[in-house]
Amino acid sequence: MKVGLLHPGEMGAAVGAVLVERGDEVLWRPAGRSAATARRAEEAGLQATEHFDDVQVILSICPPHAALDVARTLAGSRALVIDANAVSPATARAIGAVLGDNWVDGGIVGPPPRSSGTTRLYLSGTNAGAAAELFTGTPMEAIVVSGSPVAASALKMAYAAWTKGTAALLLAIRATAKASGIEEALLTEWARSQPELEVRAQNAAISAATKGWRWAGEMDEIAATFAETGLPVGFHEAAAAIFRRSPQLAEPSLDGVIDGLLAQQDDV
Ligand SMILES: NC(=O)c1ccc[n+]([C@@H]2O[C@H](COP(=O)([O-])OP(=O)(O)OC[C@H]3O[C@@H](n4cnc5c(N)ncnc54)[C@H](OP(=O)(O)O)[C@@H]3O)[C@@H](O)[C@H]2O)c1
């Protein structure tokens, strides 16, 4: 199988690597991409090219805010195109309108796949079964979701609404507690009654300080998903604001993120 991959980020490179390991030829497009992406592509065994003319399958795995633009670069492609990005059903439908009959909606849950059992690729739409077969024999578990052509995106949105939405909420709570002068008292109470929250807040800070720029766009997509169902959008608009405010830190720490959030209090 010859596969095109846009782009070899943390997730894309790992997905490409499991296909290469299975014996597939995986191509990527270097134009406009950074040295870090080129390094990941090389380590994953991917081949650089600007042309995907003879590939059978193309995987789009990129930041959610770029997913529609990336799809536009693939319009008219004869390959099966799996859009595996964290986008709202509305954005997924717009991507489908660009890509036409060869489009497959997808959403990834779990870390970059390196061993079996960690990561699921949810797929929906008429081509979902054919797309799922691409991952047979790899650590990436492909699961077809029925219900609507954009069910995979809807599922990813509902899943991340909790995991990333509550991460942002915890950071906002910690910043509020510090600004109110009751941080130690809150931590003491958490230790007694909510002992898991301190570790969750530490992990949330590491994510916010390293991928907050990308998670903000995902929160916008979740807010749009809630809007489409007539539910309040405020939870995830606020989460997007928290991730946009989060400082990007070379040495991520909870204190660094809290201080960064509080430093921008005027920007409410
Ligand atoms: N990482 C995870 O654990 C994880 C888990 C589940 C789902 N996912 C999904 O996987 C997708 C990608 O995540 P990731 O972790 O791989 O992100 P990432 O590590 O930040 O990589 C993003 C890739 O897309 C490229 N890119 C950045 N801005 C772009 C733009 N404006 N247009 C086109 N390409 C652009 C980057 O290239 P340059 O940096 O070279 O410009 C990089 O190669 C997301 O939709 C995410 O929801 C990721």
Taking all Cα atoms into account, the compactness measure Rg is: 20 Å
CATH superfamily label of the largest domain: NAD(P)-binding Rossmann-like Domain
Task: Please provide the ordered H/E string of secondary-structure elements.
Answer: EHEHEEHEHEEHEHHHHH
How would a crystallographer describe the biggest sheet? 8 strands, mixed
Low-confidence stretches: none
Describe the structure in your own words.
The protein is of the alpha/beta class. It has two domains: 2-148, Rossmann fold, CATH 3.40.50; 154-262, Orthogonal Bundle (N-(1-d-carboxylethyl)-l-norvaline Dehydrogenase, domain 2). Helix content is 52%, strand content 13%. It contains ten helices and eight strands. The chain has helices spanning 10-22, 35-44, 67-72, 89-99, 128-133, 151-179, 183-193, 197-228, 234-245, 254-262, and strands at residues 2-6, 25-28, 47-48, 57-60, 80-83, 103-109, 120-124, 141-144. Strands 3-2-1-4-5-6-7-8 form an eight-stranded mixed sheet, with helices on both faces. Helix 8 (197-228) packs across helix 9 (234-245). The longest helix is centred in the last third of the chain and has 32 residues, at 197-228. The radius of gyration is 20 Å and the shape is globular. It starts with a strand and ends in a 6-residue tail after the last helix. The relative contact order is 0.10. The model has no long low-confidence stretch (mean pLDDT 96). Bound molecules: NADP nicotinamide-adenine-dinucleotide phosphate (NAP). NADP nicotinamide-adenine-dinucleotide phosphate is lined by residues 7-12, 33-34, 36-37, 61-64, 66, 70, 85-86, 108, 111-112, 214, 218.
